[in-house]
Amino acid sequence: MHRLVLEVRTQHLDSLVSKRIVELVDKLVQAGQPTAQAEPAAPTFQVGDKVVLNSGGPVMTVTSLVGYDGNLVCEWANGEETDHSCFPPAVLVRAGTVHNPIRP
């Protein structure tokens, strides 16, 4: 019985909190105040895409998508050999994209 009372009380409190949050967001919107915005998603790439680092560097080819964290394996020419490394998508842009990083 005690467990049931706690469950009902928790559901009731959750409902009250949710309603209050909706009320506050509605007031902010009506007042013209900006609400929290999600950060823009990192760009998505596919195997075979040509990319460069945000900070510049050689054109690289995405050769595979790695693991749950979304990192990409990229390969590039280094003289007569090739190199490769893993990069998070947020540090890459598509090759040919105009990008002017801010440098200190």
Oligomer: single chain
Strand order, largest beta sheet: 4-3-2-1-5
**Count of separate DSSP helical elements:** 1
β-strand percent reads: 25-35%
Outline type: elongated
Spell out the helices and strands N to C. Answer: HEEEEE
Largest β sheet strand count, sense and barrel closure: 5 strands, antiparallel
Q: What is the mean predicted local confidence, pLDDT?
A: 78
Helix content: 25-40%
Roughly how many Å apart are the termini? 64 Å
How many domains? 2
E-strand count: 5
Which value, in Å, is the CA radius of gyration?
24 Å
Uncertain runs are none
Structural class: alpha+beta
Structure characterization notes:
This protein is an alpha+beta fold and 104 residues long. It has two domains: 37 residues; 45 residues. The protein is built from one helix and five strands; from the N terminus they run H-E-E-E-E-E. It has a five-stranded antiparallel β-sheet with strand order 4-3-2-1-5, with no helix packed on it. It is elongated, with a radius of gyration of 24 Å. It starts with a helix and ends in a 10-residue tail after the last strand.
Annotation keywords:
single chain, about 100 residues, alpha+beta, 2 domains, 5-stranded antiparallel beta sheet, elongated, DUF2158 domain-containing protein, DUF2158
